[in-house]
Amino acid sequence: MSASTDLRNQDNTTDAGAWVLLFARLSIAPLFLYSGIGKVMAFSATAARLYGGADGFGRFLAAGSIAVELGCATALVLGLFARQAAVILILFTIAATLMFHNFWAAPEAQVVGQTINFLKNLGLIGLLALIAHQGAGNFAVNAALRRA
Description:
Blueprint: H1 10-41, H2 43-51, H3 57-78, H4 82-100, H5 111-134, H6 141-147
């Protein structure tokens, strides 16, 4: 097998893998950025939804979810601490999925929609697991700092 067709060749996989990881990071980040900005714009409603009231612990949970979504999404876009951001978002997505997309307890009219959202979140968790395992790739701030 020649070096140009050998998939284990470091030069071949590095370029393709770096582009795939960049695409993965940039395709998932807008979801969390949009959600985080939405929570900022409707902070009281978010706090009330998370803990049944717009004060106290609900505000704490809302602020925490905003920090996680905006902070980790920004980290993914930049490729800075991408592994750590992906792990945090995996845990966040698991919690959100179990809290808000529990199709097994949803009214019959909502079962299909909640099931689709539940399965969508499983896909997001899978993509985040890829990023957590592989890291940010070569097109990232971390990679630039390592080369400097």
